[in-house]
């Protein structure tokens, strides 16, 4: 057992940290200004392109993509354990840093699927432009009206019609899909409702401009439309016709494909959430040193010290659990690491939400406003407790496993 | 000791409940549509005027205004204890119901101040149109850069220049002030920085259109601009000149005037927060009966039952504490009820925030979106933990009192 | 609605408070010394008798017994609402005060049953000596090996044999039964396992010295044997034969009789638990004023103030819920007050446990020892979360009721 | 970074686990019987000697003692990281397993001090018999009446009188000291009250039978006298005279010596506490599978699954933090690991207390009794939140460090 990072991780961590400090954090007010200047636009703002160019120059690009598999040469070739501290650092500026390194959800998950399950043609058509950040993408799984954690409830139908697949259904919470540049929609639907529970679903690649695709409306999270990363769309699919070659994986593989995506997706969420907590604690420390009430700096007040100490302990313990989970994914595989993935998915967002709540309290009303990144991070952490299955599904599954003889 | 409401309370409660159910709740989607139709407008929407007209016809108007004092005949003449359940009912639809009955903050507090401290001319010029809902108002106390819970830190200066008062400073979180119809700004500033700590401040009535008043920008709370009730403004006062007759109360009375406003303001916040919790629990019950996961309705799942039961117990206990506080304010006065006012100010928003968090979890991502009122209520409850002093100031004060020999 | 106690309550509260302060609290070290002097004895100690004599002289006797019913003239004739603050005061010294006023569980519940369901002969033989504190009693419901909250699982059998009832089974957690002076055992068993679920059980009066009754062993709660009030016994009933006239209520009434006992029993537990919290807060205040760490009295430390303030708010809110529950029991009856009884049963012990935990922390290791009453109170509060059904049964039932359309 | 244990750790872990399962757990009822048979005896029971003999035969002896230093050859020569999982396993049976391997507090800490600071004569006289378990020892630091976390408050005086040291003062919570076989008392007192704050104290070795030493009384923790490991004593030192050669370390080194002891002591506490949590979770799983209420096994009830899952996640995260702390102690030293030591000291006992509370609830009243080890473990975990400084001292110190610029 050894808790020291390897040399490559240490080097990349220093490099990414410097990039975030020197390029990304100063770009935050620029993003705000660009968003305010064109309030109706759902496209990425120019500052994102500039950061991407700078990151790419430094070789900080597609860090998330494992080095194995057909597209391995395009990624940084890092293990999950090596990528973890880098992903955490991107969480310090969640609106800009993940995109700057082309490591933003949902594109990362979609790129992993294409790298793993895609045909050469699919990789050429979609993976290459995604790896170049020429296009963005969305993942269309969640549906209004059903509990998405229960895959058997999916209502979208995909039926074969000769060489075509015809998709009918309604999706929502398709993150990124308000962005007109999100050229690819990865859609999950049922090809065979009579098959066994986990063989009913298939995954299909749908170009955004296919007839029958209608982006109905944007959804908000608390009051945020998350316009900077393409928002969250409700999308109608009315007899949307794509070639059968657009199937990602085989027919009936949809559930397995989705599962393959969720493991890394969940751990990335957790890593970034820890980065949000670290950013918040930095802000808290600054605030506590500068602000006084009733004649004493906040930093000398016992309650503030307890908040900060408690938060620090939670972050340290949970980071180790995330790292161990990454190590398990690397050494025994995602499936064998399922219980640990569930554990961090439950514990990290919950803890980070509580930490952000404390730090907002320290900032007073400013902490709830757009003057600090805290409330928007809070909304993101809160949403993570529901994304990819609500906590309760994971708690129940984990508890069941624990109680098995 | 008797826990039954008196006859007038019972009757008004039934009437207000019916009005909210029949008029206000159905108006919520209308408000959404009107807000979406004119996204840049900060004025109240037509649906508010219609609800006000209907409520006034039924005599459900200015329910908050105590029957005593010079303007008593204009209010409903209710005690705090009688008003409590009515205020709670308005919390079930916080964007519309308080305004419908002309019982919305910050106007209620401003009207109380004018009724209590205003000269006949001040009452004629400002209280009468407020009681008629012809104008709205804002309260300008909080300042950027200082801890507002510590009145000695206020930076805004009010200096006398002959028969005029000249105000210079900067305020923010002036709720309602983005609304161009908020004709009156009640501004707290320092008239004498050398006076004893609580005699340095004065309160002055500033017409919104006075030269030197600049509404700088709107602030957001968790992404919400709260446009429906006039938002939250940052306002600059640059050599703003008003007649000395605009002083509300005497010179040096500012702190006392502000305190007079805070007691009722805090209990009203708590009452409405309980109404939000009740609305959330109603929504939760509906959701839990209708939605199933893994083959069982949520209503039959133990964890959901615990959430609902725990929430119910918290609401019942805290409502009684709010009612007792109202009774104390009525019987021994606001000052003698200070510890109870602090107690509910601490406990109620915190509990309601937790309840809303649970109910959002029950609704999945929809619970965080604009499709349900939960996230916006959450933001409101969260803000209440900072408004009128953060929890920690009240906890410290209450703890200090408790530990006194 | 009126939160002021009536005149009789105010008077009795003052009288009981004075008695506890002047007689009971000073007797606590006497009890400790008497317990240490005869460590193997399970009988009440002399100091209890002395306190009983003093209380009886002052007319503070059988305060718990409602004034209605056949034995009403023997009790103080108080409503639940009137008794509540008195019961709370006895919680300040839980080992001595309830017994001093002949208001100690389980005798109170047994006396209520005898008063309500007993025949004149049963009342003469058992109720009269209990009301005089000449004997004590135990209630034998809980059984090892089954979930006692589920009455259908009861394993003790009562079969008729001519004019006799023959009881076979095993009970535990029979509080008070280690005391050789506990002359009466009230035993619940099944007379007809084939009857409908809640008609299978009957309740029978068993003199302690009946052949076949074996007190197997004492149980401990944490490390306490609760010797001062007769401990908690495991009891074997082997073909125990009593006259059929010893049936309390009719055959098959056992469940209903038990339920009748539980409502008042639960509220009394909650009242006393609040008294424990008040005692703890008094001790906390003294400690915080006297003890300094790192140069500052604990009373000036923010964290300590928050603990005390939070505890105070919880106590105030929950006391009101207990009082309202008492009022409902008085006005609409125990059955109609079932949800409120469940609510306090859930919320009060849990809050009091948390308060005691905080106060123990304030006292350091002394707080866990026999030098302070805190740890023993903690054990009692913790046990209350299981007595008469674990919290989870009540939460589930309350949640189910709340989610009903 | 690597989360796999090294080969020696893996091997020893398997060996210790097997020993605990095969020898120690079956010995628990034997211990109970031996304690019941001689209730007034404070000596270790025969079963402890037997387990020690068996463990020693297997080479599982003095596992805690680092391999470096003058007495290194007597210990197992493990790093903190290697010892951690072994210490955890001993926590599964805290009354027997630590003693079985001669790894029980406070002897471990005392042996480390003797190994590190002792003269050859001191090591021969005291360390050798301790390493052989021929004697036991106590550590006398805490005093009644002062906050022990503040070393400057220590009241015990040690004055030089020629070649002798004369000790006067009163100690309590001297764990193990009721055992007549605890031949050595390690006593901290002030040699120079005028020296700088952390140079006032010295540590001295006092044979138990020295005239002037009076064991005043045993203290209890939640009713437990902890007789099995020598209880907790209050001890009076009245002009106790020992040779000056009994000074452990130099004059004025007392604070530094105590600190040297506390780091390992704290981490050992945390390791064992995690073992208690694991034992509790095993018991919980068994109970949940076997017990049904209202027709369903507890293991299928959502609330129970959440308890178990939440507990599992806490244990996994905190174990990693403990292991990382051990690794830091091994690699950068105890002083550099101070913040991590504080972090686990705060977080682990608190979490384990909560876990034990949940499992007790699952067991019903049996969980609070002596029939299960849960309540006694709860008392131990609760006490750990105060031992070696209350949580609040560590939280404040950690928060202060975190807020430093």
Automatic annotation (TrEMBL), chains A, B, C, D:
<dbReference type="InterPro" id="IPR037069">
    <property type="entry name" value="AcylCoA_DH/ox_N_sf"/>
</dbReference>
<dbReference type="InterPro" id="IPR046373">
    <property type="entry name" value="Acyl-CoA_Oxase/DH_mid-dom_sf"/>
</dbReference>
<dbReference type="InterPro" id="IPR050741">
    <property type="entry name" value="Acyl-CoA_dehydrogenase"/>
</dbReference>
<dbReference type="GO" id="GO:0005737">
    <property type="term" value="C:cytoplasm"/>
</dbReference>
<dbReference type="Pfam" id="PF02770">
    <property type="entry name" value="Acyl-CoA_dh_M"/>
</dbReference>
<dbReference type="InterPro" id="IPR036250">
    <property type="entry name" value="AcylCo_DH-like_C"/>
</dbReference>
<keyword id="KW-0560">Oxidoreductase</keyword>
<dbReference type="InterPro" id="IPR013786">
    <property type="entry name" value="AcylCoA_DH/ox_N"/>
</dbReference>
<protein>
    <submittedName>
        <fullName>Acyl-CoA dehydrogenase</fullName>
    </submittedName>
</protein>
<dbReference type="Pfam" id="PF02771">
    <property type="entry name" value="Acyl-CoA_dh_N"/>
</dbReference>
<keyword id="KW-0274">FAD</keyword>
<dbReference type="GO" id="GO:0033539">
    <property type="term" value="P:fatty acid beta-oxidation using acyl-CoA dehydrogenase"/>
</dbReference>
<keyword id="KW-0285">Flavoprotein</keyword>
<dbReference type="InterPro" id="IPR009100">
    <property type="entry name" value="AcylCoA_DH/oxidase_NM_dom_sf"/>
</dbReference>
<dbReference type="InterPro" id="IPR006091">
    <property type="entry name" value="Acyl-CoA_Oxase/DH_mid-dom"/>
</dbReference>
<dbReference type="GO" id="GO:0050660">
    <property type="term" value="F:flavin adenine dinucleotide binding"/>
</dbReference>
<dbReference type="InterPro" id="IPR009075">
    <property type="entry name" value="AcylCo_DH/oxidase_C"/>
</dbReference>
<comment type="subunit">
    <text>Homodimer.</text>
</comment>
<feature type="domain" description="Acyl-CoA dehydrogenase/oxidase N-terminal">
    <location>
        <begin position="11"/>
        <end position="132"/>
    </location>
</feature>
<feature type="domain" description="Acyl-CoA oxidase/dehydrogenase middle">
    <location>
        <begin position="138"/>
        <end position="240"/>
    </location>
</feature>
<feature type="domain" description="Acyl-CoA dehydrogenase/oxidase C-terminal">
    <location>
        <begin position="252"/>
        <end position="401"/>
    </location>
</feature>
<dbReference type="GO" id="GO:0003995">
    <property type="term" value="F:acyl-CoA dehydrogenase activity"/>
</dbReference>
<comment type="similarity">
    <text>Belongs to the acyl-CoA dehydrogenase family.</text>
</comment>
<dbReference type="Pfam" id="PF00441">
    <property type="entry name" value="Acyl-CoA_dh_1"/>
</dbReference>
């Amino acid at each position: 057992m050894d808790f020291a990072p390897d040399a490559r991780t240490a080097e990349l961590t220093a490099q990414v940290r410097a990039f975030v400090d020197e390029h990304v954090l100063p770009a935050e007010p620029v993003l705000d200004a660009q968003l305010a200047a064109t309030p109706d636009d759902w496209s990425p703002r120019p500052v994102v392109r500039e950061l991407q160019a700078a990151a790419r120059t430094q070789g900080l690009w597609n860090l998330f993509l494992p080095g194995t598999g057909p597209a391995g040469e395009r990624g940084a070739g890092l293990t999950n354990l090596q990528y973890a501290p880098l992903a955490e650092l991107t969480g310090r500026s969640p609106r800009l840093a993940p995109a700057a390194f082309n490591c933003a959800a949902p594109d990362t998950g979609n790129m992993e699927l294409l790298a793993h399950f895609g045909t050469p043609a699919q990789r050429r058509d979609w993976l290459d432009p995604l790896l170049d950040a020429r296009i963005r993408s969305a993942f269309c799984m969640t549906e209004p009206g059903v509990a998405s954690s229960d895959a058997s409830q999916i209502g979208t139908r995909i039926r074969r019609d000769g060489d075509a697949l015809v998709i009918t259904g309604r999706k929502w919470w398709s993150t990124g899909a308000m962005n007109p540049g999100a050229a690819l929609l990865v859609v999950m639907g049922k090809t065979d409702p009579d098959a066994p529970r986990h063989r009913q679903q298939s995954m299909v690649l749908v170009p955004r401009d296919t007839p029958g695709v209608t982006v109905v409306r944007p959804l908000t999270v608390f009051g945020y439309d998350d316009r900077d990363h393409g928002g969250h769309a409700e999308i109608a699919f009315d007899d949307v016709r794509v070639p059968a070659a657009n199937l990602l994986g085989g027919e009936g593989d949809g559930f397995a494909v989705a599962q393959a995506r969720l493991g890394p997706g969940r751990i990335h969420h957790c890593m970034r959430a820890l980065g949000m907590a670290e950013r918040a604690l930095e802000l808290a420390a600054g605030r506590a040193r500068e602000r006084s009430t009733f004649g004493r700096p906040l930093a000398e007040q016992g309650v503030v010290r307890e908040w900060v100490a408690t938060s620090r302990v939670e972050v340290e313990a949970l980071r180790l659990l995330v790292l161990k989970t990454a190590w398990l994914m690397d050494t025994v595989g995602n499936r064998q690491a399922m219980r640990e993935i569930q554990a961090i998915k439950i514990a990290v967002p919950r803890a980070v939400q509580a930490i952000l709540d404390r730090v907002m309290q320290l900032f007073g009303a400013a902490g709830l406003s757009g003057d600090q990144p805290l409330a928007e991070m809070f909304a993101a952490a809160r949403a993570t407790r529901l994304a990819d299955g609500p906590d309760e599904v994971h708690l129940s599954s984990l508890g069941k496993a624990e109680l098995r003889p």
